[in-house]
Here is the input.
Amino acid sequence: MTTNKHKERVDTSRRGFLGAAAVVTTVTVAPGVVLHRLAVAEPRSEAVTSDVRWGMLIDSTKCAEGCDACVTACNRENGLDLQKQPKGEDADQQKKWDRQAAKWIRIVKVKDNLTGHESRLPMMCQHCEHPPCVDVCPTGASFKRADGIVMVDRHTCIGCRYCMMACPYKARSFIHETVDTKLTRAPRGKGCVESCNLCVHRRDNGTPSTACADACAAQGQGAILFGDLKDPEGPLMKKLTTLSSRQIREDLALDTGVRYAGV
Here is the structure.
């Protein structure tokens, strides 16, 4: 009985310490040992609504040859750079890993057969208004949020990969290997499908942009503009009204949230 009371006093004291540590900038644990609290944006306190629809405009004329800043930033932001290639260094193993490693953004080149004009496009999930991946998912793991972001619930994904076959943009990846290291904000596991979610953790914590858009701007390219497709006074819609743009595979009438200029 005495032991239990002692444990209770210890636990209560520990909870009190942790509570205090959570509301101050630094807490001294012992001489020379200090805990630092990281400053973060306030998390979302209201439900997601359809008052906004997040999207992007990508200007291919500003996408510089040889630049992969958006890909690198996406990988770092979402822990894709933590993926580990299975053992084996032969050429076939490397080619297999190049095909299977999860990628949320790919740089693709398209050519107009009539004019010969070539465009360099960052290609990711297009966040369709009518996403075919959601239509074919047997468990509801693929879903679209009220704000237009298309996502995968990894807890209910059974790895059937129907969504991958349905996506006309080849924007989804399947996790083939066991995952040892991952970010809390971007969990992943073997046997699940995933894709670009427009940095949804940023959306839900008050950060205004995406990692790829920020990286592109930092490089001085400014090829990626993120914003609200429902805000006529916002920078995205103002740009869309002055710059000719199109959707990739407009013939499918999916009403994509990602638009391209200069294609």
User: Anything to note?
Assistant: Residues 43 and 201 are 9 Å apart (CA to CA). The two ends are 75 Å apart (CA to CA). The chain has two domains: 2-36, 54-261.
